[in-house]
Amino acid sequence: MALLKKAEAIELQQPAVALRDYQKASVFANKIGYTKGYFESIRLIAYLLDLLGRHDESYKLAGDALKKALRDTSEQYRSTCYFALAQSAKSQGRNKEAIKFFEKAAPFMLAHKNRRKASVLYQNLGLIYESERLYPQALDYFGRALKYDLIAKSSDLDLALDYHSMATVYMKQNQLNMALVYFRKSKALLDPTRDMHFLISLYGNMANLHKEQAHFDSSLYYYQRALQMNRKLDNPLQELHLLAGKAETYNEMKQFSLARPLLDKAYGLAKQHKVGLSEFRNIYREYANTSMGLGDYKGAIPWYDKYMQTKDSLSSIEAKELLENYELKLRQAEAKQKLAEKQRRIDQLEQARQRQNLWLLIAALAGIVVVIVLGFAYLYFRQRQRTAANALLAAERAHALAVAQSELQGQQKERLRISKEMHDDLGASLTAIGLLSEVIKTRMGPNTTPEIEKISSISSDMVTSMNEIIWSLNTKNDNLNGLIAYIRSYASEFFDNTNLLLQAQVNESPQEIIIRGGDRRNIFLTVKEALNNVVKHAQATQVSLIIRPEADQLVIEVIDNGQGFVQNERTRFRNGLGNMKNRMSESGGSFAIKSSPEGTCVQIMYPY
After folding, report:
1. Whose CB has fewer CB within 10 Å in the chain, the N or C terminal residue?
2. How far apart are CA 432 and CA 422, in angstroms?
3. What confidence tens digit (pLDDT) does each residue in 151-198 have?
4. Which of 258, 306, 261, 319 is nearest to 279 (CA)?
5. 134-149 pLDDT per residue, tens
6. First to last CA, the chain
7. Which long-range contacts (C-beta less than 8 Å, at least 24 apart) are formed by 166-170?
8. 297-366 vs 370-421: helix axis angle to the nearest 10?
9. pLDDT-based confidence at 607, cuts 50/70/90?
10. How do residues 218-264 score in pLDDT, each as one tens digit?
């Protein structure tokens, strides 16, 4: 037992050393006939093998131990072996088999006076439902785990694990604010010196959450905290995920040169520790994005090819699993439908019997109190009419609401589908055209024809335009701060390639304000046209971009120190200015120009 405790303390930092000590303890316990020590060591060995990805060894070891446990009279040892088999099957994605073994381990764990064992069982079942994307069921089991941990007065670390599990499910449901609430509850229970392993994982998840919300500074902060703590523990697999996530954040920020060294480290760790396909897929994707961002189009091609090959392999595996799950759910739905039909028939028979009894009673009393019966019958009939009318009205309203919600959801799904297909299909094709044109230009050297230059320029412009359209279609961006961040990023990149000095005074809104995709696109295109006019016509040396969210409207100003222009009938109705005015009118906003020899000010106002 001393050997097991010593190995358990270092299993994440030195897994190979810990595994060797676990195996020594197993051999020694078996040799001296110490049954408890033997099964405890088997449980820890199986857990560590699963952690290292050696699932076949783990499964075989737990199976051999189960044969021995079945010859023993202790239910505890059998439960321990079934639990180890369930965890191994869960790690391999064999969820049906895992649930079967958990059910066999459950009687002992649920009956045990220590409620912590029941919490562990529910925690694992929640993880299975989470992997099956059955998120309401996963939240239910994690809630049960939290309930039993509170009853058992479990440690702060165990309670933090329950909150953390619920937060990850909310994050997968895209309920990011709820996820942040539970991550903070989990963090409040952890000790920075004692629970460093857990804190590293928590900081990594919080970094991912802030990345999804486009809060890149917060994302980088949590990645850096996690990496600093992980270097003290020397967990290479955790460092791999953190490095890849931080690199992805830098790519999102267009800081590709900072992403490259992080990817090199992550790739080295991935090859050294032979991680799974999904980790390699993410690294290949970010390498391709980094190479393209740095202008190394030729270098991006092999990374993109590796990414597509790995993605296709994973898609084949996932498709097979999804097909099996679909068939199971279909059979379950058919069984529920038959049961509901039987229940409906029973209800109809019961209603018919009740109506028959009612009419028999009315007939028996009809000769005694005819007038009273007729009066009550009339009142009853009127009440039924009112009830039916109210029920019909309520049903019509509910149906209208459901139709409206369905149409809205359909529109959102269609927008997401269109943006995804444009990104995956058109984006890949346009990128390939751009890459091929760059390769041709490289090969032709000074003999490059104007047509090749034009193809390269047009493909680059089309990629930019397509990214703008995808951004406007994606419902995740339907918020004010997302629009402000996008305009600021676009302006910064736009003026990088010019001689103009950009001064940006950009404020974010303290409130979460929703803006429709069409309005976002109109505002952005109006600002874009104003910036283009500065570069093309103003002959300026300096331009200011001011974005100011007010209580009831968004104010954007583009001010240059150029030569200005005189507004007349010809300039007033030029396509560019006319389009800017029409776009803002379409979105319910306003557009104004003030020009003088000292410069021009374009003011855009959009009421929330």
Report:
1. N
2. 14
3. 888 888 889 989 999 999 999 899 999 999 999 999 899 888 888 888
4. 306
5. 889 889 988 988 998 8
6. 66
7. 166/139, 166/142, 167/205, 168/130, 168/205, 169/126, 169/130, 169/135, 169/138, 169/139, 169/142, 170/139
8. 170
9. very high
10. 999 999 988 888 888 777 888 888 888 899 999 889 999 998 899 89
CB 118 within 8 A of CB 109: yes
| Contact criterion met (CB below 8 Å) for 563 and 539 | yes
Q: Are strands 553-560 and 542-549 parallel, antiparallel or unpaired?
A: antiparallel
Q: Which residue in 149, 144, 139, 145 sits closest to 179, CA to CA?
A: 139
Residue with tokens 């019961």: 350
Q: Which residues pair with 201 in a beta bridge?
A: none
Contact 13, 234 (CB under 8 A): yes
- Strand ordering across the sheet containing 553-560: 501-506, 542-549, 553-560, 599-607, 590-596
Closest to 122 in 3D by CA, of 91, 89, 174, 86? 86
* The pair of three-digit structure tokens given for residue 559, joined into one six-digit string: 């001010």
CB distance 410 to 266 below 8 Å = no
Structural contact between residues 133 and 109, judged by C-beta atoms closer than 8 angstroms? no
CA distance 398 to 392: 10
- Burial (CB count <10 Å: 0-12, 13-18, 19+), residue 41: buried
Structure tokens at 542: 């300096």
When pLDDT is cut at 50, 70 and 90, the band that residue 534 belongs to is very high
| Tokens standing for residue 133 | 């994307």
Burial-class residue 605 by CB neighbours within 10 Å (0-12, 13-18, 19+).
Answer: middle
Lowest-pLDDT range of 10-14, 92-96, 319-323, 552-556: 319-323
| pLDDT the model gives residue 606 | 95
Q: Are 117 and 145 in contact (CB under 8 A)?
A: no
Q: Are 75 and 63 in contact (CB under 8 A)?
A: no
Place of tokens 């030569």: 563
Which residues on neighbouring strands pair with residue 555, listed in sequence order? 548, 605
Tell me how far apart the alpha carbons of residues 184 and 193 are, in angstroms, rounded to a whole number: 18
- Positive/negative CA dihedral, 88, 128, 173, 188: negative
Predicted confidence band of residue 530 (pLDDT cuts 50, 70, 90): very high
Helix axes 277-293, 236-252, angle to 10 degrees: 30
**What is the mean pLDDT of the segment spanning 50-56?**
79
CA distance 116 to 147: 10
8 Å CB contact between 532 and 573: no
Give the C-alpha distances (Å, rounded to integers) separating 92 from 86, 343, 439.
10, 40, 43
Positive or negative, the CA dihedral 287, 291, 292, 294 is: positive
Q: Which residue type sits at 33?
A: G
Out of 324-328, 534-538, 599-603, pick the least confident. Answer: 324-328
- Which of 191-195, 308-312, 366-370 has the least mean pLDDT? 308-312
Written as one letter, the residue type at 372 is I
Compute the distance between CA of residue 102 and CA of residue 445 in angstroms, rounded to an integer: 66
Give the Cα separation of 555 and 562 in Å (integer): 22
The pLDDT of residue 605 is 95
